[in-house]
Design goal:
316 residues, alpha/beta, Rossmann fold, 2 domains, five-stranded mixed β-sheet, binds adenosine-5'-triphosphate, binds magnesium ion
Length: 316
Amino acid sequence: MSVTFKHVNFTYSPRSPFEYEALRDINLLMEGHHFSAIVGHTGSGKSTLVQLINALLLPSTGIVAVDDELIVSNKKYLKKLKKTIDKPKKHSEEDIILAKQLLAFSENKKTFAVKSLRKKVGMVFQFPEYQLFEETVEKDVAFGPRNFGVNKIDAIKLGHAALAKVGLDESYYDRSPFELSGGERRRVAIAGILAIEPDLLILDEPTAGLDPLGAKAMMELFNEIYEAGTSIILVTHDMDIVLRHASNVIVMDKGQIVKESNPIALFGEDTEQYSLESPVLFEVSKTLIKAGYDIEITKIQNENDLAKAISLGRKR
Ligand SMILES: Nc1ncnc2c1ncn2[C@@H]1O[C@H](COP(=O)(O)OP(=O)(O)OP(=O)(O)O)[C@@H](O)[C@H]1O
Ligand SMILES: [Mg+2]
C-alpha cells in the first residue's frame, strides 16, 4: 500500500486567536513494505502528520492519499481547485500551478471512506492504555474487528490471537482492563489494533514511559509484526530504536520535513544540525575510532555489528 502527501498544510484552530500552522508543504511518498521512523524536536509536527494518515485530522490544504483514497479538507476541496483553474484572473500563477498539480494527482482516485481507511491504517496513540473502555480484556480487543463487521466468534478469535502476539495468555481474557498494570494495559490496547489486522500500523511513541526491558520487548514485538508483512510508521525520540529498526527516517523541524534518509546514512553525518542525538552505538563507535580502532561507523546497526567491528578493527 502507499501513503502520499502532496503539498499538505495543516493549521490548528484556523481563523481564531489560537491559530497555529503545524505543518507546511509536506510532500512524502511511503510505499512497499517499510518501517519508517519519524523523528524531530518536540512540537515539530510528528503527531499531527501521522493523524492525517488515518483522517483523524484533515489537511487544511493539499492532499493525503492512502492507496487511491483521497483525504482532503472537505467535499468541495477538489471543486475549489477546479474553480481556481477556471478563473485564472482571480488567482496567482503559483496557486494555479498548484491546483493543476493536485487535480492531476487526484484523477482516478476517490474521496476516502472512514471504515475502509481505518481498517487499512491502524493507529496506536501515545499512552493508548487510556483508550480502553470495555469490561473485559477479551471484549476490548474484539471490539475493533466487530466494528468492522466480523462476526462475534471470529472477532473473539482475532482478539485472542492478537493478545497472544503481545504476550498475554488466556488468564487475561476475563480480567478488567482497569485492574492491569500500565504496561499490560498498553499491550491490551495494542492488541486491540492488531486484531483489526491493518496493512499499516502507526505507532506514536509506543515505548514512552515503559521500563527499558518492557520497551525492548515491545520493539521486538513490532519488529516481528513488521517481518510478518505489516508496514510500520513509528514516531520516536529514541535514536537507538531508529538505528536498530527503521528502514528509513523522516526528520521534521518546525512543521516541515527537513531530511529523508536511511538511518545509517543519517547518523553518519552531523546530526546536530537537525537537533538530534546520536545513537549510543554511534557514540561508542566514535570513541573507539578516536582510541585508534579501525571501525567503519556506517556499518554499525546493533551490538553484534559493533562487536564484530571491534574484533576485526585492529588498533591503528
Ligand atoms: N489541538 C491543538 N491546537 C493548537 N495547536 C496544537 C494542537 N495540537 C498541537 N498543536 C501544536 O502544533 C505543533 C505540532 O504538534 P505535534 O503534537 O504534532 O508535535 P510533535 O512533533 O508530535 O511533538 P512531541 O514530540 O512533543 O509529541 C505544536 O507546536 C503544538 O503546540
Ligand atoms: Mg507527538
